[in-house]
UniProtKB/TrEMBL annotation:
Disordered, as annotated region: 431-464
PANTHER family in the record: ATPASE
Compositionally biased intervals (Basic and acidic residues): 436-462
InterPro entries reported in the protein's UniProt record: ABC_ATPase_C, ABC_ATPase_put, ABC_N, MRB1590-like_C, P-loop_NTPase
Domain MRB1590-like C-terminal: from-to ranges: 462-558
Coiled coil: none
Domain ATPase of the ABC class N-terminal: 1-159
Domain ATPase of the ABC class C-terminal: 166-428
Protein name: ATPase
Pfam families: ABC_ATPase, ABC_N, MRB1590_C
Length: 561
């Protein structure tokens, strides 16, 4: 502590660069402060610090297995964020002076670099804007931040007594239950489970928090109700969605997309109080949508779309500008390539001509290369074991291919399968277009040399917010990777891509992604870090989003075989 004080005394009022002398570690009594990286000026991204307690006196039950540890780390990250909000004054001079922050978690519980809990210590990775007056060191303000505010944040969030231990226990137990529940899905023959009482709607289109006012809690239809036994909570009932083809039908504004959206996010665990904490979907579920304008590199979409104008083959399809239907087909082929057992499709965000083609249009248009999705859903399940949940409001033909129909009315689901059978009898069946072919996907080979990380003299591979990755001079747009939930995942993906490009030659997309995730599993997310000590702000992405990002690189060259 005295060393820290004397350095601060010495550099007071000197040029901002003098803060570099702070780099190092300091014993501050209850914890050790590591100053890993000092910012260049008050307007640059804040300095990276870690605070590590001298011991871990939390009950080991809170972090005694890998699932609980991740959940407890998530809890503590939120506790630090809350403590910072209460304790830190912020704004102590120019630029980011006096700002203190920790990675901001989404509603999902994910492995992150923000917190490390071991049997011996608890370590929070934070960022601090070292205070300046103009462009000179403000030692007094720095003392207040580092020696008053930070220790208070530690007392309120990283040691027993500072946190609400009952809430911590509920947090880890809920996450453990959700994990267990997701694990049960295959043996129950289900692709998803929505607990009775779950709150699915969100506050707004811009907020992932639960809708508070007038939210109708989820109630399973009797016919689909499943009761399970969870390790902490005990018995739980809710709607089980079986494998196969499930239709979610209903009038406009009755909660169809809200249900599908909740399912697509429930590949992740959510915090207690989110409303979706006991909603689970197969962890490899992929939301599929149209995304016209995206680039596609060497994807085999011939099972869905035949030869294009000019006899152009679609078995090795590349374009800088896909149409609605070809982009949706590419999204499906890429999901199958990485591996999925469940596709989630919403009519609202699909290309109409990809979903369906009626008989009059078939009569008029003879040169149509597209086999509509309606003819694919059954073969996808029969041949590849891939289930589909599809939201439709307008296209009754889908009744012909559904194993079951969930009807949403006033946000309440009912099992409309028997009525769907009656309706089907009343109308002549739709003639399928013939045998749709689905083949197991091939692993494309990626040429790493097609990605150029150079930008001026430097090489860059970094995340920018939730939906952009900067690779050299290219900005990769991930807006339509809807299952990407926090910027930390985007950052991790950027670094995985950077590591892949640094390697040589051509490799299969699946092996690139699997190897990267296996090495994270083995060495932790920290291993993607670029500075000694503080790794930066990262969260664990899924294989599907890593591949999804690679697939959207415009310069990417890839091909089958
Ligand atoms: P659809 O896809 O059937 O047209 P949406 O899922 O988009 O309908 O839902 C329409 C509106 O209803 C949205 O604003 C949504 O937030 C709200 N909503 C959905 N489910 C519920 C619910 N259970 N309780 C209250 N509001 C809901
Ligand atoms: Mg909708």
């Amino acid at each position: 502590m005295n060393r820290l004080l004397s350095i601060l005394d010495r550099i007071d009022r000197r040029g901002y660069g003098a803060y570099k002398d702070l780099q190092g570690s300091y014993d501050l009594g209850a914890f050790t402060l590591f100053v890993d990286r000092v910012q260049r000026d008050p307007f640059a991204p804040p300095s990276l610090v870690r605070v590590r307690t001298k011991s871990n006196r939390f009950p080991s039950g809170l972090y005694g297995n890998p699932v609980r540890r991740v959940a407890f780390e998530d809890f503590l990250t939120r506790a630090v964020e809350a403590a910072v909000r209460r304790v830190v004054r912020g704004n102590r001079g120019s630029g980011g002076s006096g700002r203190v922050e920790i990675q901001h978690p989404s509603q999902a519980v994910l492995p992150r670099t923000s917190m490390v809990v071991t049997g011996d210590y608890v370590e929070a990775r934070m960022a601090v804007g070292l205070p300046a007056r103009g462009r000179t060191v403000d030692a007094r303000a720095a003392r207040a931040v580092l020696l008053e505010e930070l220790p208070e944040v530690v007392r309120r969030s990283l040691v027993p007594g500072g946190i609400d231990e009952g809430a911590a226990r509920r947090h880890v137990e809920t996450v453990e239950d959700a994990r267990h529940l997701r694990g049960l899905l295959p043996e129950l023959g289900l692709v998803a489970f929505v607990a009775d009482g779950a709150i699915l709607p969100r506050e707004s289109g811009a907020s992932d928090r639960p809708l508070r006012q007038a939210a109708v809690p989820f109630q399973s239809p009797e016919e689909l109700r499943v009761t399970v036994e969870l390790p902490n909570r005990g018995e739980l009932s809710g709607m089980g969605i079986p494998e196969g083809v499930t239709l979610v039908a209903g009038g406009g504004f009755h909660g169809k997309s809200t249900l599908l959206e909740a399912l697509s996010r429930s590949v992740y665990d959510h915090i207690p109080g989110d409303g979706r904490e006991l909603v689970v979907t197969r962890e490899d579920a992929v939301k599929i949508r149209a995304e016209d304008g995206r680039s596609v590199a060497g994807v085999d979409i011939s099972g869905m779309i035949g030869d294009l104008p000019g006899g152009r083959s679609t078995s090795d399809f590349s374009t800088p500008n896909a149409s609605g239907s070809t982009s949706q087909a590419a999204n499906i082929a890429e999901a199958l390539e990485i591996g999925t057992s469940l596709l989630l499709v919403d009519e609202d965000t699909s290309a109409t001509n990809f979903m369906i083609r009626d008989e009059r249009m078939r009569e008029l248009v003879r040169k149509e290369p597209i086999s509509p999705f309606i003819d694919l859903v059954r073969p996808l399940h029969a041949t590849l074991g891939v289930s589909t949940i599809v939201v439709v409001g307008g296209v009754g033909d889908y009744l012909d291919v559904a194993d079951r129909v969930i009807l949403m009315e006033d946000y309440r689901p009912s099992d409309a399968t028997p009525r769907a059978v009656e309706v089907r009898r009343k109308f002549p069946p739709r003639a399928p277009l013939g045998e749709a072919r689905v083949r197991p996907p091939e692993d494309r080979r990626l040429r790493s040399s097609s990605i150029d990380l150079r930008r001026g003299k430097r090489e860059t591979a970094r995340g920018k917010g939730l939906s952009t990755i900067e690779l050299g001079r290219e900005r990769v747009d991930l807006t339509y990777l809807e299952q990407l939930v926090e910027p930390g995942q985007t950052e991790a993906i950027a670094r995985i891509v950077g590591d892949f490009v640094a390697g040589t030659g051509s490799r299969g997309v699946r092996s690139v992604v699997e190897k990267a995730l296996a090495s994270i599993e083995r060495d932790g997310l920290d291993s993607l870090g670029s500075f000694r000590g503080h790794p930066g702000q990262m969260s664990l992405p899924r294989a599907h989003e890593v591949a999804g990002a690679i697939n959207r690189i415009r310069s990417l060259e890839a091909s089958t075989g």
